[in-house]
Amino acid sequence: MGGRLGARLLLALVWLLHWLPLPLLAALGAGLGHLLFAFAARRRRIALRNVELCLPERPAAEREAIVRLHFVWLARSLLERGLLWYASAARLRRLIRVEGDIGFAERHPAQAVMWLVPHFVGMDVAGVASQLHQRREVATIYQRQRNAVFDAAIRRGRSRFGRGAIFSRHDSALPLVRAIRRGMIFFNLPDMDFGLRDAAFVPFFGVPAATLLAPSRLAHSLAMTVQPVLTEMLPGGRGYVVRVGEPWRDWPSEDALADAARMNAWIEQEIRRCPSQYLWVHKRFKTRPPGQPSVYR
User: Fold this and answer.
1) Would you say the C-alpha torsion 11, 17, 18, 22 has a positive or negative sign?
2) Which helix (H) or strand (E) holds 204?
3) How many angstroms separate the CA atoms of 52 and 198, rounded?
4) Among positive and negative, which fits the CA dihedral 75, 81, 87, 88?
5) How far apart are CA 175 and CA 188, in angstroms?
């Protein structure tokens, strides 16, 4: 009961904050980010270790600066979730700038389409943009939350415009496949460590990382066109940019392992372009090859 009450109070605060101008909300998020860096010791250690593994060529002071700034962006993304969940469509259109061919799927209604959306902190903005800037419905997978109040809020917030469906990754994939076959775009988050089920160890910045083969296999089996999609949060509360790339012409291939390697290489490239906004607090290297110890001890 206490957990649900606390969740409702937190959601009420997020709702109140969404009325603030974005520059002020961004400043509050920056302050919260500095506090999180100072006091969220476990997540700070994970983030620092991830950046050390992925960007070892950078000096230690620079890696720490990346993580400090990452906590600012992370905190901002949490506070600004209220905008995505509660702000008017008109306000969101003003705040979100779309670059690239977001209308590809709409112009090709008979073509199955997958958006590859790696875990940068602003990724939920791309979900909103997909509902505001094109008319095809969108299906996505999410991680079911232990707190029922938060779980309901996430599901409601991500489908608030009634333009799609959300499926738990713990459930059967068949409803998702049916949704894709009915014409929904698959908003796919491909870069988390869920163990070795339908995954393989593929280099990520040269480190073996449990990488999902399902994106390639699903795209191949359903003859999907795949577009890479990234979101960048802009400094000073200036809004967001969603970059929708041109469809990959040779992905998927017949080789799911090679496809996973190419996907990781693309994510690496985008991380190097904007290193502080990748989700470093996730244990990307949690699953280790046989005989190798944890990198987080």
Assistant:
1) negative
2) strand 199-204
3) 27
4) positive
5) 15
Cβ neighbours of residue 17 closer than 8 Å, sequence gap 6 or more = 25, 28, 79, 82
Give the separation between CA 268 and CA 265, rounded to whole angstroms. 5
pLDDT band per the 50, 70, 90 thresholds, residue 2:
low
Q: Quickly count: other Cβ atoms within 10 Å of residue 39's Cβ.
A: 9
Closest by Cα among 275, 242, 231 to 69: 275
pLDDT on residue 6: 86
Nearest to 187 by CA among 253, 245, 219, 141: 141
Query: Residue 101 is encoded by which pair of tokens?
Result: 């061919």
Q: What is the pLDDT of residues 4-17, one digit of tens each?
A: 888 899 999 999 99
**Ranges of H-type helices in 122-251:** 123-132, 148-158, 174-181, 214-221
**CA gap 24, 104 in Å, rounded:** 35
